[in-house]
Amino acid sequence: MINDLDYLATRLHARRSRMAEGTRLDPLCRSRTVPELCRTLYPGDEMPAAEFQRRLVRDLVQELFGCRKHLDEEGSELVGWMLVRFQLENAKVLLRGLLNRTPFETLQRHLVSLPPGLELDRSALARAESIGDFIMLMPDGAPRRRLSEAAGRQRDNLRPFLLEAALDGGYFHELLARARRIADEDREVIKSLVVQEASIFQLMLGMRGKFHYDLPADLLRPLGAAGTGNPDEWFGALLAAPDVLAAAKCVVGHALDELPPERAAPKAFGATANPAAVEALAWKRFLRLANSAFRRSHLGLGAVVGYAGLRRVEVANLITLSEGIRNGVEAEKLRARLIPRTDLEAADV
User: Which of 258, 302, 308, 319 would staple 186 via disulfide (CB 3.0–4.6 Å)?
Assistant: First the structure.
């Protein structure tokens, strides 16, 4: 079945029918404990929340890794780079360990097992004595180059937020480049989805950097992901905005489809709008584009990339769900927190 895209797409359509989304999330929200949730999704198994979450991510990685053998060279390269995202999440854990001098034994509990070719040299990175040593041990490529540039700009005042953003910026730079190289009729639906994910990164880089960490625009601007559609225009406007609501209005039509009227969600979008609510709307747009790619492509590469996006949202929702259940959040409130957020009634701005 090597390089059989029709076969793969057909399998993914069948798997989509079993995905935990929409109304299927309602009974899951009523689970009383994480082991009960686990038994529903993995019959016969019980595990604590942390292990349950690692398994969700591990299963997603293995599923996407298995897709590659059915794709041609361009498709395999694109999906292969999408898997690098998980490698970089491990790199961030190890980077925080370096900056905080956290023992490797503690870090290991937060790392995800990856397939051959994606694993980092964890023990070597954990033993790095400086950011320069850490960078030299990273795989060559755009994330490593961006990290090196960011470390050089910061010199003796290393900020974890900016260093991690540099890794993400490098990842999206390469992801956008690979999406643009897709030659078939699915390129536009794939590009739209990839641009949206990169736009979410850039949106939250600006939101968190400006309004949470109070960082100057000169430090944030070089970390943006080029290729998200007039980035200098909307990203620059976001960085100049006086508050979160004004910043959110700058990105409607780019990272957001629309904003809710204040009367519909006063706590989220009144005078004290918060970045988390804006991010939820950006992921709502991502979900719409993933659904569109999956439907419009049907048996093409767009269906594979769209499915990967849908699974990303499913895993994010299930992780949110397990955390909410663990912390005793009521089912109704928990359901409202899942993507798409039901407590953010939307309207055109």
Answer: 302
